[in-house]
Amino acid sequence: MNLKGERPYVYIATLGNAPQVVTLALDQLLPQHRFVEVCVIHTDAAPTSNPPQIKFSKPQNVPTLDAEFQNLKLLEETSGDKLWRADYRVGDRYYQFRYRRVLIQREVQQPGDLPTYEPIQDVETEENSQAAFRTIFRVVKRYKEQRAIIHFNLAGGRKSMAVFVMSTAQMLFAPGDKLWHLMSGAAFMNSGAMHDDGQSSRLVPIPYVSVTSLHPALGMLIASNDPYDILQAQENYLHLMDLQRKEKFLRTLDFDEYQILVGVAQGLNNAEIGSRLKKSLAAQTVANKLTTVYETYLVAISEGVTAVSRPESDNMRAFLAAEFGAYFQQRNEKLT
């Protein structure tokens, strides 16, 4: 039972071909954190008529993992989601928490029908990969809405699953949330031991960058339960912010500076730009003005910076062309 106002701790893990990855990490975290819930995300290992070439998890992995949680009492069951109250033993100490298993399912939509959901056995297709990403995101978002502090073990399963976990953490994690990877020797892992009495494994923290911490306004966009909707919303928002920043900067330029920047984005050299201006300028004058434009722009986009170093001329031109090329091209602006 949590004290009033105390945030709950939750342990989440993906299940792959080595179920001991889940328990080995849990064993190391439990002495420091009083988890109220342990959640395992997994694919379907039941035999089918068209199984994938390499399964994400073996048929015995789920029952092998379940066997580690004792005195299971079913509390809740929905499609693809089961929750028990369970006892768990580490050495001579017992812990009690809720044990949840979440089955990854993909949405199947037939014209004119309500969507249905079918379990996936691997993430070998784009459809299944999207289902895995959506499931991981949905699980984490639900816990964050409950103010949980999350410890996520991303060591289980395919590498793509770890990428989905990292992306989810970048969008949803807050200070206090942790990502973990488990390091173990091959001989120990091949033994199939579900617990480590000889310190043959260790947890390694995985650093991540929180998007909402870098730019709090992006956090306001996280309203959907679909990560792809959120990624698109964030992309649109960042594009709008970039556009507004560029237009604000361009309004600070005089006529010649603006035209010089158009010429650079067009791929012209200084002599060509100078000759095409309404009032012709020498190549060196164009170069001097271009340097001023570059330095002013870097100061404008760098908070708190009042001075910048001068790069090589080619690097400066390449940077400005990359920044403003698409902007002027969309507006069909060029020096003639």
Describe the structure.
The structure is a single chain. This protein is α/β, with parallel strands linked by helices. It folds into two domains: 9-214, Hypothetical protein VC1899 like domain (Restriction endonuclease-like) (Rossmann fold, 3-Layer(aba) Sandwich), CATH 3.40.50; 252-330, Arc Repressor Mutant, subunit A. Helices cover 43% and strands 21% of the residues. It is built from twelve helices and ten strands. The protein has helices at residues 20-29, 61-66, 126-145, 159-172, 186-191, 211-214, 216-219, 227-250, 255-266, 270-276, 283-301, 313-330, and strands at 9-14, 35-42, 69-78, 81-90, 93-103, 105-108, 116-119, 149-153, 178-184, 201-205. An eight-stranded mixed beta sheet has the order 3-4-5-2-1-8-9-10, with helices on both faces. Helix 4 (159-172) links the parallel strand 8 (149-153) and strand 9 (178-184). Helix 3 (126-145) packs parallel to helix 4, helix 9 crosses helix 11 (283-301) and helix 9 (255-266) packs across helix 12 (313-330). It is elongated, with a radius of gyration of 27 Å. The termini are far apart. The mean pLDDT is 86.
